[in-house]
Each structure stands twice: as C-alpha cells, then as structure tokens.
Amino acid sequence: MVSVSGAREQKARQAGNAIYGSVHNQSMTSRVVDDNDTYVYGPERISTHPYSHCSTISSVRRTFCLLALFDLCFCFILWVIYTQLTGSETVWEAFEQQVANYGFKTSLFDTVMVAALRFVLIELGYALFRLNHWWLIAISTSLTCIFLIAKVFLFEFSHAGKPENPLSYILLLASFIITWIETWFLDFKVLPTEKKILLKGTHGQPNERTSLLRNAEEGNSVPDDDKDTRYYSPAGTEACL
Asked: Which residues of 127-146 are buried (b: 16+ CB within 10 A; e: fewer)?
C-alpha cells in the first residue's frame, strides 16, 4: 500500500508540474522581447527592427503608413477633380495643360508630386527601415510647408481669363493639414505607444534567474494581469486520499 500510494503521489506531482508548465509557458508567450526589438503579444508579433525576422509591425505604425497612402490618394483625387473644372474642353487637354505645359504659377500638379514624395519617404523610413525617430517626418513636413507657402504667394488662382477654381484652395489647404496630421500622429501616437510596448516587454520578461515563487516572496501579491495565470495545485482524488 505504501508503494501504491507513493506512485499515486508521484503521478499527482507530475500532473501538477505539467499543468504549471503549460500555464507558465502560456504567460511567457504573452509578452516576450528579443535582441531585435521584436515583441510577442499572444498570436501577434510586433517588430520595430528593420532586420528582424518578424514581418509584422505595430498596429499604430501600420495606421501611420496607411495615413500616408491616404494623403497621396486624396491629393491625387482632388487634383483630378480640379482639372475637370479648369474650363478645358476635354479631359486630356486639361491634363496636358497641367502636366505637359507645367508652370509653377498655373499648375497644381506639383502638389501631387510632393504628396508622392512624402509617401515614398514615409514608407521607406517607417515601414521598410522602421525608424524610431522623428527626424525624417520633420524634414518632410518642413519641405512641404516651404513649398506650400511659396505656392500660395506665387500661384495665379485666376489666369488666362478663367474664373477662380475653389478646389485650388481646398487642395493646398488639404495638403498642409494632412501633412501636420501625419507629423502629430507619429510624434504623439506611434513613437510613445511603441516605447510603452518596449518598456512593458523589458520589465515583464521572465528569464532563467526569475524565481518560480516570486509571488510568495513579494508577500503573495499577484498583479492584476497575472490573476488568470496563477498556479493552483490539482485537487486530490478519492483514490489518492
């Protein structure tokens, strides 16, 4: 009977260790950080390192890149509508006046090219190389503002006897506003959010030196986010009793 009860007790301990190991490993995979600044939150892998093996970037950075794409598409659509209201007989004549016969004082096609340049810089810097600094968006915004200010003073809103087109004002204002929205979103949303993820992953990462009984050593204080991963010993069965 002693040997049978000892074998049952050993099996119960093995079962408890297996349950604890599965729960502990699950809690570890919810927050991991490696040397390449790759963070794991459940099934989602977040990376801000340009050469990381992880292909997924943070959700706020993806939103920022989509905002740059929206900037380009919005400016292009506004410019196309603007060309339809210039008074030309056909669409191709309007495009020819705006693109082939481009003039800084008479054409707004350069606003679309500036939007395309902003899009390329943002996608290369913050999507491909995954920069964690604001210097690139600062350069992009500064150049855009200088261009728009010069455009406002030199552009002829009514030329060649043609009436003023209200979309010319809207296009210039939209380009200016969206540029500053991108700057604000990166500086106040993207970078602080990813910094919080980095700090959370660094402070909460367990390693081989972490005590298995650290909650007991800290006065049995369990954080709120670890309440669902507490270890409970398996209840004894009637056979074991």
From this structure: beebbeeeebbeebbeebee
21 and 108 fall within a common domain: no
Does a structural domain hold residue 145?
yes
Cα separation, 144 vs 140, whole angstroms: 6
- State whether residue 123 is helix, strand or coil: helix
pTM of the predicted model over 0.85? no
The pLDDT tens digits for 97-150 are 889 889 998 899 999 999 999 999 999 999 999 999 999 999 999 999 999 999
120: left (phi over 0), alpha (psi -120 to 50) or beta: alpha
Note whether 209 and 197 are same-domain residues.
no
Q: SS3 for 32? A: strand
The enclosing H or E element of 109 equals helix 109-122
Q: Which pair of tokens denotes residue 165?
A: 């087109």
pLDDT per residue over 169-183, tens digit each?
999 999 999 999 999
